Amino acid sequence: MIPRRGVRALCARLRNEGKRIVFTNGCFDLLHAGHAQYLRRAAALGDVLLVGLNSDASVRRLKGEGRPVQRAADRAYLLASLSCVSYVTIFPEDTPARLIGEVVPHVLVKGGDWKGKEIVGSDVVRAHGGAVKTIRFLPGRSTTSILERAADLRRKGPGSSGGRTGTSRSPRAS
User: Fold this and answer.
1) What pairs with residue 80 in β-bridges?
2) Which of 50, 74, 94, 114 could make an S-S bridge to 70, C-beta 3.0–4.6 Å?
3) Residues 6+ apart with CB under 8 A from 105
4) Strand 87-91 vs strand 48-54: parallel, antiparallel, or unpaired?
5) What is the pLDDT of residues 79-118, one digit of tens each?
């Protein structure tokens, strides 16, 4: 993880080394397969993937009470543990606009749900000759759907299979 105050210097050094910087951002509250695939595909667009991670207060403002499920330090640790992620930094704002202005990435990446929408920071990236890309999500994978499934399982209570299939044993009649 890189402290926010070190981002500008890091990116200047990376640019001087001829590295192509890819930037994406998000809450990444419960890391799942959709996140992993998205980040791997984003990383493939350059040499270095820098992930801007919303702070706890920012996630709460964006997603509501009860979120984030995991603290920013834990979310950052998990992201940084992925081999495709080069750097993670936490930002307190609700949008990454200021951070993107400090990074000035060669490629700005967002999920496919942003296709056709104005992506925050795209103006800065394009003004510096960079590209803006969207990556399609893995269908059916989201933190919200995981939380909904967990809530359903909790409501069904102990002993519920939660919709899983498997073998059940019934006593033999003698």
Assistant:
1) none
2) 74
3) 11, 21, 22, 23, 46, 50, 125, 130
4) parallel
5) 999 999 999 999 999 999 999 999 999 999 998 776 667 8
